[in-house]
Amino acid sequence: xxxxxxxxxxxxxxxxxxxxxxxxxxxxxxxxxxxxxxxxxxxxxxxxxxxxxxxxxxxxxxxxxxxxxxxxxxxxxxxxxxxxxxxxxxxxxxxxxxxxxxxxxxxxxxxxxxxxxxxxxxxxxxxxxxxxxxxxxxxxxxxxxxxxxxxxxxxxxxxxxxxxxxxxxxxxxxxxxxxxxxxxxxxxxxxxxxxxxxxxxxxxxxxxxxxxxxxxxxxxxxxxxxxxxxxxxxxxxxxxxxxxxxxxxxxxxxxxxxxxxxxxxxxxxxxxxxxxxxxxxxxxxxxxxxxxxxxxxxxxxxxxxxxxxxxxxxxxxxxxxxxxxxxxxxxxxxxxxxxxxxxxxxxxxxxxxxxxxxxxxxxx
Amino acid sequence: xxxxxxxxxxxxxxxxxxxxxxxxxxxxxxxxxxxxxxxxxxxxxxxxxxxxxxxxxxxxxxxxxxxxxxxxxxxxxxxxxxxxxxxxxxxxxxxxxxxxxxxxxxxxxxxxxxxxxxxxxxxxxxxxxxxxxxxxxxxxxxxxxxxxxxxxxxxxxxxxxxxxxxxxxxxxxxxxxxxxxxxxxxxxxxxxxxxxxxxxxxxxxxxxxxxxxxxxxxxxxxxxxxxxxxxxxxxxxxxxxxxxxxxxxxxxxxxxxxxxxxxxxxxxxxxxxxxxxxxxxxxxxxxxxxxxxxxxxxxxxxxxxxxxxxxxxxxxxxxxxxxxxxxxxxxxxxxxxxxxxxxxxxxxxxxxxxxxxxxxxxxx
Lengths: 364, 364
Ligand SMILES: CC(C)[C@H](C(=O)O)[C@@H](O)C(=O)O
Ligand SMILES: CC(C)[C@H](C(=O)O)[C@@H](O)C(=O)O
Fold this sequence. Notes:
The structure is a homodimer. Chain A is of the alpha/beta class.
């Protein structure tokens, strides 16, 4: 039997630097734990545009469809701001999400004990925070047709379409309920049903799935504006938050920032099971390409490393190994090892990207 | 010459209670400062539904069009959750906004010194906070056509349309730039131009207006997800935030919660100038109808009172009197007078809604 396959798309900015540390960890798992992976690498985002004039080639897209998991770094940078919408780095990422049909984006917002002081929020409000946001990722206003800029009555009109079918809502709802079963059995579904019909349908379908298939899960509904407030007011009230593509984009970033350490947060984007039973999957850190610090060895590789831990758990059925990797990260943090983004006002000497990677390897 | 006219729509929940205190203040301005207003009252939201079967009658709508300013309390409550979308309390509010064409929603997020401890954020991050959010209020996905729930390929589809014309963007941009001129000359315009064409047009039009008409204003652009993060991370970086209807809904509530005292925050919704030069205008507290505490004399009337201060400033050209009222509120807070929502962990005895109103009157 062949090894499970991983396609690495390191992308732009700090993407390649943080991914280098992940590669070492992948190698370690092959050498030390008998978990060998077939790894290939390719380009995405601005890097792909520079080489090929598009942010993702058809060949790379085809490879992504074939592997067991894609590891993505980050895309974008000021250099590409001038590009046309259709070839901007983000389009590469959105194409991967859409064509792989990665409908469930899992974004844990966890506050690491060693870092609770980093939050802008008072420590007792965030210490121990552990929210899982499940964001729909392949539909809604990100992809709805019609869209574009049109001429009408002598002026231009910018148009996008928010659009959800029952089946699109149902499948991501199931992902959220399944996750809740392994956590605290509570799901908060978020929309704007008071002003949007798409939100009314969302609420109806989510409720119906709970009633029919997950009666043991406690389901509540919240408007998106209130959810933003509640995240700031009392974030620990949440277990799993289920929401659409656009609300999920905003609320998951808000929740991420509550933890105070964006450089720590991984994500998984999952689709339907493939022939081998594994879900289509892409893993990426929540942080962006951070062009301002790229190439300086300052970036924190932890978010990308924890994204690989999610890959171990969700793609490769290696929950114990995922936990091992997460524990190694916690140990290194508890030992006081810090990249520049994790330095508090008390100061100290930050370690570099590669030093952080080496410490985590050593802790494994 | 007749007195300026005010239509009071107290609405549901705590709306009538907090509005009672505003009425006393309006009377005080007539008696003591020679600023007499012609005040009429009517129903909106659930209260209007109970009486007339609709959340806003045509007669009330017509009155709102004729007065110099509408003072609104709050709408909604669990009793009305079962109602059809078309007659929900919120529809009354949305009809007022739309038919009065109140395109610029001004939502100050200010942190009162006496209350900085109430924020979930660390005190130094919010003390002195003073952001003005300008939210477009009459277009976007709240009102775009087509909308609804349709049958398609044997399943239902929920659909809404995000839609902005150049002129809709231009007029609210001007409102934001005008406000910035009287503040710190900085505007952050927020959209998702990386994924939505409506955001691309938004960015273009806002930039063009700045270049042509407000070259002295410092304009920056930010994606909505990043804005949510930055609000949590370092809220004092902002002066004026300009954004669309849906992003504004979420971000202004997030910003409001940063201040820690939602019961303190007013809002103004302004339209085009009427024949008498005054803008079409509606003023309302940011908080909702709070059905859980309605009728108990616990509600904080300050947000509604400060909304009247905004009316003095923006509708009646009485900036000095607005400041007088705001100072009275600050004085009462500095004296330690607190409604239940402003009680800290150290405890104490809260004052009632009417006591708070009386203290502010006394301070005037
Ligand atoms: C880069 C961008 C297109 C993307 C999004 O808006 O989805 C990002 O913000 C994210 O959340 O992954
Ligand atoms: C009550 C509701 C319709 C409204 C909105 O979504 O605009 C409210 O949240 C607000 O922000 O004024």
